[in-house]
Structure formats: structure tokens, C-alpha cells
Design goal:
The chain is built from nine helices and ten strands. It has about 260 residues and is α/β, with parallel strands linked by helices. The chain folds into two domains: about 170 residues, 3-Layer(aba) Sandwich (Rossmann fold); about 60 residues, no CATH class. A six-stranded mixed β-sheet has the order 6-7-8-4-9-10, with helices on both faces. The longest helix is centred in the last third of the chain and has 18 residues. The protein starts with a strand and ends in a 5-residue tail after the last helix.
Amino acid sequence: MTIRVATPAAPLVALRGIGKAFANGVAALDGFDLDLREGEFLTLLGPSGCGKSTALRLIAGLAEPSGGRIDWRDENAAQAIGFVFQEPTLLPWSDVFANVHLPLRLAGVARETAAPRVREALAKVGLADFESALPRELSGGMKMRAAIARALVTRPRLLLMDEPFAALDEVTRFRLNDDLLALKRELGTTIVFVTHSVYESVYLSTRIIALAARGGAVVDEIEIDAHVARDEEFRASAEFARLCRRASAALRGAAGERL
């Protein structure tokens, strides 16, 4: 990944004119622009194939753009990224501690040295008592908590999350939504979140960007007051309903439906 350092007043990361075409000729992104503000919770909302996950992978440096450029405010931010995938992708033969330790071990940090940070990350996601458990002994929600702990153990400035709760039941999903918001308040980490869920996007985000079905064109950008408490009262409020209607209309427009 080529890192272009921008001015201190610039966004944490800016994507400019990004194109991404695959070998089969499909263009996931075409002329895509995005400013990511430090400290925000940004959700990319859109139908399958709109380039949401591709944008995350480009920001993370897991893929290279076919065109355009990615500008970072500083080089340290570009190296301080955590990634949570749709599947927990835990090593089945390793216990929870070893799975969370993995990114530090790959960076050359020994188990004994890493232990306080691993246990701190596990405590933050409610798995302090499960460090010796194997993945097969965990529920789906607990596996995802372990994956989030693994991403947090490196203390990233930017956390990228690609539909992490999509496969979970509604009760577990709501609980993890609340836990994620609590972590966000505690750590101040900038988050980019991908989802198909209108309700999840409105509940979690300070900003939603709805993307068109092809090429990553922005259909709508929805700002949500960061100071509004995210709780059951918010879910039952007229403002939540209004924002959900707008996000739903944007999603239908992104899919090419007549509004």
C-alpha cells in the first residue's frame, strides 16, 4: 500500500478517485471518494456488490486500487489498523488467549510480554474467564467477541468491521451492538462498519454513506448526532424512525428501485 501523508488538518484517511477492477472485468469501485474523520463511527450501507467490503480492504492495505489514491494524515495511522471480518476466523486448534495473541505474536511480541494486553482486550469484550477455551466451546457471539478482542489487542486507531454481526441472532446482535458502542466510547477508536441492516446502521453510526449497487457512487450521506444516547429509548424514538426511513429509502435507491 502506498502511503501519501496529508496535512494535519486533513481527514484521518481520504480516498480520491478510487477504482478497483477485478480480473473478470467487474468494477467494484469507480471514481470513489471518501473522507474518514478521526473519531467517527462511519457505516457503509448498500446492497451486495456495491463495493463496501472492497473499500475496507483497500483502506486496510489488503488490496491495491486500480486507480486513484489513498491519502493518510500520518504514517502511524496507516499502520494502526484492526480488521474484523464477517466470520470470526479463529484458529480452531488454539485457545482464545492464543487467538487474541496472534497479531502480537506475528509482530514478534512474546506471550509473556503480550499477556497483559491480551487479558485487557479479553476483559473489554467480556471474555476474561474464557482465555483457555477452544473456539468449538464458544457460542457464535462469543467467537465474534474473541475476533474483536484480537483486533483491539494491537490498540488500533482505526477499526474496520465487515458485517461482523450478520450471521448472529437478533438478541445477540443487539447485545454486541451495545457492547461495541461502549468500546467506542471507552477507546475513542475510529470505526468503519459495513452492514446491510438499516436499523443497525442508524443505531450505531454518527454518519452513514449509502452506496449504489455498482461502482460505489454515493446515493445519500446521513449525519447522526454523536451526542444522542444509543439505547432502547433511542430505538423507540421518532428520530430513530425518521432516520431509518431515510436510510431505507437510500438503500432502495442504491439497489435501483424507484422511490
